[in-house]
């Protein structure tokens, strides 16, 4: 796979890109400061000028959020059907979370791992007891967790299983996605993730998804969807099932002749619901898991109406 993926990489191209953005940034920086509320168009343009083009956001500029709702800078209200990739499953600006955050940052903002503090162990004890694990290593991002899983799998292979040093192989299923670090893209079969970034991580092998006979050596990465444990109590089983279903997403495209997820998401936005198009023909629907039954019903109406409008 990797010989196929490897492409000569021109540093000169990257440098030209850097110089181009620096000079355009300088010319924009001389313009006068914008007064009053920012428009969506201004926000899109500013990000395009000063930010690296490593992402392609839906054109909506958000300013505030509460529970399952977000508002853009022009005051339009939307159901948030991505919930920061489920990082805000508790809903935007949850008062308990905001107040804990504020209280801690006012008392002791940050410590390094060079010292102990009085709360890390409390969290470690809580989370390991809740999920019945011996130990936990907290990470800031999902991809760091994947990186750590790779390191653990390799060390376990050498120390416990007696694999000759640096000969371990980690097997990934084709079609995986676990982030965009060098390791993550080295296990990817999606050219939009890996193309242009080689050479890739050695010792990674990709086999077809769901092909047990193809497995000869094991490296297991488990991604735990902690979000589903943040459901509020008092909800009916039916609503829990609906939330779970929504978290996993719905493939609406068998019903639409023109399979363009981007266009559908633009129209969902116009109808008051923000979702994430991915890979051209898939839409990820992940509302905060605090969404209530009547809100789910309203959202289903929006999705239904949008799909039928194509
Ligand atoms: C399925 C999946 N796994 C892992 C990641 C990486 O998570 P993070 O962005 O927190 O590193 C993402 C991010 O989009 C993801 O969608």
TrEMBL record:
<keyword id="KW-0032">Aminotransferase</keyword>
<dbReference type="InterPro" id="IPR015421">
    <property type="entry name" value="PyrdxlP-dep_Trfase_major"/>
</dbReference>
<keyword id="KW-0808">Transferase</keyword>
<dbReference type="GO" id="GO:0030170">
    <property type="term" value="F:pyridoxal phosphate binding"/>
</dbReference>
<dbReference type="GO" id="GO:0005737">
    <property type="term" value="C:cytoplasm"/>
</dbReference>
<dbReference type="InterPro" id="IPR015422">
    <property type="entry name" value="PyrdxlP-dep_Trfase_small"/>
</dbReference>
<keyword id="KW-0663">Pyridoxal phosphate</keyword>
<protein>
    <recommendedName>
        <fullName>Ornithine aminotransferase</fullName>
        <ecNumber>2.6.1.13</ecNumber>
    </recommendedName>
</protein>
<comment type="pathway">
    <text>Amino-acid biosynthesis; L-proline biosynthesis; L-glutamate 5-semialdehyde from L-ornithine: step 1/1.</text>
</comment>
<dbReference type="InterPro" id="IPR005814">
    <property type="entry name" value="Aminotrans_3"/>
</dbReference>
<dbReference type="InterPro" id="IPR050103">
    <property type="entry name" value="Class-III_PLP-dep_AT"/>
</dbReference>
<dbReference type="GO" id="GO:0010121">
    <property type="term" value="P:L-arginine catabolic process to proline via ornithine"/>
</dbReference>
<dbReference type="GO" id="GO:0004587">
    <property type="term" value="F:ornithine aminotransferase activity"/>
</dbReference>
<comment type="similarity">
    <text>Belongs to the class-III pyridoxal-phosphate-dependent aminotransferase family.</text>
</comment>
<dbReference type="InterPro" id="IPR015424">
    <property type="entry name" value="PyrdxlP-dep_Trfase"/>
</dbReference>
<dbReference type="Pfam" id="PF00202">
    <property type="entry name" value="Aminotran_3"/>
</dbReference>
<dbReference type="GO" id="GO:0042802">
    <property type="term" value="F:identical protein binding"/>
</dbReference>
<dbReference type="GO" id="GO:0019544">
    <property type="term" value="P:L-arginine catabolic process to L-glutamate"/>
</dbReference>
């Amino acid at each position: 796979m990797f010989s196929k993926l490897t492409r000569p990489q021109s540093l000169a191209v990257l440098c030209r890109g850097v110089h181009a953005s620096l000079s355009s940034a300088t010319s924009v920086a001389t313009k006068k400061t914008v007064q009053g509320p920012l428009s969506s168009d201004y926000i899109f343009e500013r990000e395009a000028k000063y930010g690296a083009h490593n992402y392609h956001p839906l054109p909506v500029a958000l300013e505030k959020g509460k529970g399952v709702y977000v508002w853009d800078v022009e005051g339009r209200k939307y159901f948030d059907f991505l919930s920061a990739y489920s990082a805000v499953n508790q809903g935007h600006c949850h008062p308990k979370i905001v107040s804990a955050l504020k209280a801690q940052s006012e008392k002791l903002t940050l410590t390094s791992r060079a010292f102990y503090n009085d709360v890390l162990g409390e969290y470690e004890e809580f989370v390991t007891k809740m999920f019945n694990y011996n130990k936990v290593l907290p990470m800031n991002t999902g991809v760091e967790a994947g990186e750590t899983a790779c390191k653990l799998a390799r060390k376990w292979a050498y120390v416990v299983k007696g694999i000759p040093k640096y000969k371990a192989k980690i097997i990934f299923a084709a079609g995986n996605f676990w982030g965009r670090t060098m390791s993550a893209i080295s296990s990817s079969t999606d050219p939009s993730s890996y193309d242009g970034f080689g050479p890739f991580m050695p010792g990674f092998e990709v086999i077809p998804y769901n092909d047990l006979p193809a497995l000869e050596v094991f490296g297991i990465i488990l991604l735990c969807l902690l979000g589903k444990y943040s459901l509020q109590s008092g909800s009916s089983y039916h609503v829990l099932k609906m939330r779970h279903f929504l978290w996993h997403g719905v493939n609406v495209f068998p019903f639409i002749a023109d399979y363009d997820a981007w266009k559908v998401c633009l129209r969902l936005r116009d109808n008051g619901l923000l979702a994430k198009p991915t890979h051209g023909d898939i839409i990820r629907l992940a509302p905060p898991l605090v969404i209530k039954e009547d809100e789910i019903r309203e959202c289903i109406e929006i999705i239904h109406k949008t799909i039928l409008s194509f």
